[in-house]
Amino acid sequence: MARSPGIFPTFFLSGFECSTFHWQHQGRRDLIAETQHDRHVQEDYAMLRSLGIAVAREGIPWPLVERGGQFDFSRLDPVIEAMNRSQIMPIWDLCHYGYPDDLDPQAPDFAERFARYCHAAAHYVTSRTRTPGPSFFTPINEITFFSFCGGEWGWVAPYLKGRDHRMALRLALCRAAIAGVGAIREVDPRARMVNVDPLVYVVPPADRPDLADEARHETFEDTFTAWDILAGRLHPELGGSPEILDIVGVNCYSFGQMEFRESGPHQALGPRDERIQPLAELLGVVWERYGRPIIIAETSGLAEGRPAWLKDVMEESLAAMARGIDLHGVCLFPAVDMPDWHKGTWLHNGICDLIEEGGQLRRAPYPPYVEELRRWQKRLNRVTVLDEDPFSDPVDLEEVRAAAQQLQLQPDRDWS
């Protein structure tokens, strides 16, 4: 019996890139198809099982399952079969940037349409997935980033540009997400929400100290606005509450610490930049603000940097837990490689690289990354391969915290 039961059956989670952006110059993208996760779903989930990972973020492509208000979720059947066979618990991602072509996120009916879709999707997957306990959902992925790339930069639908458009799009997405949570909990009142957004830190350029206020506002206010709305701290008329925010999913990448730019995306700080802040400190800001359970919902290094990145993230995560932060897991995302959205080249950020062979994408685990995962599983007294019933006991967070105390890790400014 776990002395301090966690939310999930394993501390390490994973997931599959599932974006369905509609790009202004590329059209509709389906990253599930581009990575051939749909063709290799049995293999992909068997791989997670062999790695001792019992939880995975998995997408439902809203624009591809709804046509004219009618739903066809049959494309999920092989996914659910693979999950059930490998005994993997899903976190269902219901809107990974894409929405049906006949919708406008700022139209009056968007939230209602999204809620109707959420209700139908929740009913379909919960009636077919054989995992005990509550179901898990991410209603709208990365509301903050979605509002930037669709509302300020004009990269993707709805192709808007300008700060005011970004603010309006973010508010509309929050309104829809809150409605979606209500619809999901009509199906499963116990359902848990994992609300995912990037965790960032922004600094002014060295030669522009006059931009310090703008950088600080983006770090400590703008970054948290969507979560604040979902939690009911801002725009309470929309119906947000701590129970809707529920689990805070923070995405943590090296490019999340940036130098402020007045227009366009900010510039990522380079390694060993003295302005980098320890991840443990940033997790502390999230914990103090909301007091809700936290997971690192996405993290990965690139290419040969993957094992070193995992080491740094784990050391920072354990330093945070030793300080009392309620962290429930780290999601190695993605499980299999994904293409760069703009260039199309493989990023080499997955547990498995993808190697093109005769029209198929062969999965090739990156050994140093796997070895680093195994090292941490053993250090934290976690399983390395799932047993016959991976859901019998949740993670004992007391064991993880004990390992953190034993290692006596401190937040490290040079963590990236």
Automatic annotation (TrEMBL):
InterPro entries: GH
Domain of life: Bacteria
GO molecular function, one term: hydrolase activity, acting on glycosyl bonds
Keyword annotations: Glycosidase, Hydrolase, Plasmid
Name of the protein in its database record: B-glycosidase
